[in-house]
Amino acid sequence: MSNLLSQVKIAFVGAGSMAEAIFRGLIERKVASPQQLYVMNRANQERMEQLRAQYGVHTTNDAQTREAYIREADVVVLCMKPKDVETSFQDLKPLFREEQLLISVIAGLTTDKIERLLATRMPIVRTMPNTSSTIGLGATGMCFSSTVTPANQQLAIDMFEAVGIVSVIEEDKMEILTGVSGSGPAYVYYLMEAMTKAGIEGGLTEETARELTLQTVLGAANMVKLTGEDPAELRRKVTSPNGATHASIQVLDQYDFGEAVSRAVARSGERSKEMGDAIAAQSTQA
Ligand SMILES: NC(=O)C1=CN([C@@H]2O[C@H](COP(=O)(O)OP(=O)(O)OC[C@H]3O[C@@H](n4cnc5c(N)ncnc54)[C@H](O)[C@@H]3O)[C@@H](O)[C@H]2O)C=CC1
Ligand SMILES: O=C(O)[C@@H]1CCC=N1
Questions:
Q1: Do residues 142 and 157 lie in contact, with contact meaning Cβ atoms separated by under 8 Å?
Q2: Domain spans of the chain, in order of start
């Protein structure tokens, strides 16, 4: 790991769940100190106060202080929603310098669109992290614009490896990656919600249903990780011939479980692209 990360000032524009997941991970893993981190929102003073009290990071939603934070940062992480990009970029554009490193977590927004919207050649790292970065178990996809130096590539990799694993991929694979790992935690939570609900409906207490579901998902994920076995093979081991699991998997097949997941992954990717395209359309009209 390069030691650059412990020396740079990092500004987060947009202080929502993704920004918090990343900076919390950086702090808890001791990869960056709270004093290096500058967190800003357009509004919501209460949120800023809560983040400052909880993590000790610098926070502001005052326009002038925000400008100072951005100008002085070595790394700026763009963490606003796609719908807020256009207005936000208008404010940010005059503040950036080409020596700064820009990191985007915005779904669907390509590096060349960022270059166009900001009229810049500054180095841009496009990422797609996920919320499990909060606990150091994130999975982040990453690609680079042509102006990102090897040192800055390493810095961005180090930053996200501090909160999980990083896959450097070609930019045209970022949408499908979004479908798999960006949105992915939501599919697992959805499955957990459904398993718990079914357990309660079958007569388990809520506490027991939740506990069993959690341990089952945790155990299954760790089995894949620790045994190195293929999920299909591990599934086969649970599925006794003509037994209970065999019968339940048949029900999932009747509802086309695999197809449903496959379509959900693809749709997330498509929706990311739609959001990115919509940003470009707005800016062209402006
Ligand atoms: N939530 C997730 O699992 C993931 C989200 N992302 C991306 O992260 C970005 C943020 O998503 P969330 O954190 O979920 O959204 P969020 O709604 O929790 O946070 C967005 C924040 O940006 C702030 N904001 C909006 N305009 C601003 C401006 N002009 N200046 C400063 N702050 C501004 C809002 O006040 C809000 O606090 C999105 O672009 C999303 O595509 C990427 C990977 C995973
Ligand atoms: O739902 C979204 O748009 C973002 C991108 C992946 C996860 N959350």
A1: yes
A2: 3-174, 184-266
CB 14 within 8 A of CB 81: yes
Cβ atoms of residues 130 and 139 within 8 Å = yes
- The answer to whether the beta carbons of residues 215 and 192 sit under 8 Å apart is no
pLDDT of residue 210: 98
pTM for the whole structure: 0.95
Q: What is the mean pLDDT of the chain?
A: 95
Q: Which of ligand 1's atoms lies nearest the C-alpha of 61?
A: 31
**Among 17, 18, 46, 103, which is best to mutate for testing ligand 1, by the most ligand atoms less than 8 A from CB?**
18
As a CATH number, domain 3-174 is 3.40.50.720
Is 184-266 in CATH node 1.10.10.10? Answer: no
Are 101 and 75 spatial neighbours (Cβ–Cβ below 8 Å)? yes
Task: Provide the ipTM.
Answer: 0.96
